[in-house]
TrEMBL record:
Gene3D superfamilies: 2-enoyl-CoA Hydratase, Chain A, domain 1 (3.90.226.10), 3.30.750.44
InterPro entries assigned: ClpP/crotonase-like_dom_sf, Tail-specific_protease, Tricorn_C1
BP terms from Gene Ontology: proteolysis
Domain Tail specific protease positions: 122-288
Location of the Tricorn protease C1 domain: 10-65
Name the record gives this protein: Peptidase S41
Amino acid sequence: MLTPPRPASSPQVVFDHLWNDINNRYSFFEEKQVDWNAVREKYSPRLFATMTEHELFDVLGNMLGELEDGHVNLLSTFDRSRNWLWYENFPLFYNQQLIEQVYLRTNFWIIGPLQAQTLDDDVLYVNYRSFERALTEQHMDQIMFLMRTHKGLIIDVRSNGGGNLQNALNIMARFTDEEVIYGQQRFKSGPARNDFTPWAPLRITPSSGSTYLGNVAILTNRRSFSTTTFFAQMGRSLPQVRLFGDQTGGGGGIPVFAELPNGWTYRFSGSQAIDLEGNHLEFGVQVDEDLTSFLMVRAGRDHFIDTAVSWLKGQSE
C-alpha cells in the first residue's frame, strides 16, 4: 500500500495552514479584540522562500503571540513559543523556600501531590504545586481525616500552572453536600466568529466520601493559571470558601492540539468559560481579599498565609 506524500511544507503553505486553522477555531477573537486579518497582513510579508526553519518559527510564534493567550503555543524540536504576559509583569508574592522553612518545616505530611502541615495549633495548611499531579480519592480521604482535628483549611495554589481539571473537582467535591453550578462553558463549533455550542453548566458534584463543610481559604497569584483558575472559581461559588492574594492569571479556554504540514505542533484555546455573572475566566478570577497592596510585610513571614490563618481563627471563635 502506497503512503500518500506529505503535504507541501513551504513557508507560505505552513503559514497559511496555521493562520486558517486559528481563524476558524480560536475562541477569543472578539473578547480580546484581535483583528486576525490585520495580523495576517502584518506577518505574511515577512515570509520568503529560502528562509530557515528558525526564521519561520519566529514569524509563526510572534504571530501567535498577538493572541496574548497562555494556552497558545507552537512547538518544534528546537523551541516552544509562548506568551506569559498574564503573569510575568506582576509580582508573585510567593517564596517556596520561605514556605518550606517557616510553614511546612521538616515534619509535614506528604499526601500524594499534597504537602500538609498544622499551623497555629488547629489550621491545616495544604500546598499543591501542580494539578498535573494526580489527586486520588484516597488522598482526599486522608485530608478529610486530618480535618477531624483541625478547625480551618488553607489550600495554597499560588504559582500552580494548572493541569487536570478532575483533580480540582476531586478537592471541591469534598466541600459541598449538594451539586453546585460554578459557571458555564461552550465550545467553538464552526468557522464564523459566533459559531459556538450552546452554553452548558459547569458543576461540582458532591463526593460519596467524607466531606468538610467548614471554612476554607484559597491562596492565588497571577501564575495560578488554567485549571487553577477554574479551581478558584469553584471556590468562589461555595459560601464557606474565601480567596486571598492576587487574582489568577486566567486561562479559561480548553486547549486544542493540531499539527502543521512540516511536522510542528501547536495548540490554542477552543472553548470559553464564564462565571455566574458572565465574566470570562480567560481573564482571571478575582480574590475576595486582595493582599497585593499590603506594605507592612514582616521579614521572614508570608503575609498571605498569616492573613488566611487569622481569618480562619476568627471564624472558628
